Amino acid sequence: MGPPPATTRRRPVGAVDLTPAPEAAHPPRPPYRAPDRYGYPETPVETTTRLRPVPPGPRQRGRAASAAACVVLGLGLIGGAATGAWLTGDSSAEPTRTPYSTGRTAWHSVPVDTLFPRTLDGRGAGPGGTHRTWKRVAVAADSTCGQGLDPLLGTTLRSVGCERLVRATYTDATRSSVTTVGLVFTEADAPAMEALRTRFTEQRLTARKDLMPRTYAPEGTVAASFGDGQRASWTVNPLTEIPVVVLAVSGFADGRTVAAPQPAAEAMAAGATTDIAQAGLGHEAKGIADRVERRLRTTVDDLTERPG
């Protein structure tokens, strides 16, 4: 007799199968690696294979050519600017001011009240160191030297050229004397002005009566009768620091004619006894000319040193 047939046991409905499931296949674990002191070792540096260069296409070639042209143009501009700056200096900088360049244009760039103040203080300017005060009577319109100077004096100054002539007339506090002072702005450079001054000194041109300055006698003023025949004393002084000739001529305010005019230096000399000397007309011409000259020098120096 054989073994009894196997029978299948039926699980009641709703019963839970407690038979353990077969173990699932798990991937093998990597071998254990002991940690370093500061963590795991770094991953080895990745290595790559050098790529084969690809020849540029037409578009890339055009871009490269444009870039090269820009570089060449930029270098050319920079080189040109550097060369220009080296040869001519910074073009944006203003030209250097000098007393000659500034002084030559002072006749129209400086206010008239600065060139010819309404009042001049002549402290110690009179005979024996007496004080003087001069009031401006009128200012003449700027003119050429041909209009404002006698022909011979104009010819004498021709070597330095005449840029412009400006003049004003003053009277003293007693209104007994009148003086015309003038500034001849020349076109000359320093050597030419030096040569003119040397000529005046060596040839004593200041003492020549035919080189007396001309008067400015506006009507309706105390100087209305101040003409050529009333010229009594004068001075002509070529400057060398700036391109200007300072001149002045004085006379009596009452219009009297003067037969023998005297240069200011002679009328101011010790022991001079002429009417001109005793009236102080030499001091008038020299004192007014000196003060106008000083103001002009100071103004030109300030303008030359002023920035911008």
From TrEMBL:
Keyword set, alphabetical order: Membrane, Transmembrane, Transmembrane helix
Transmembrane segments: 67-87
Annotated stretches, region: Disordered: 1-62
Name of the protein this chain belongs to: Secreted protein
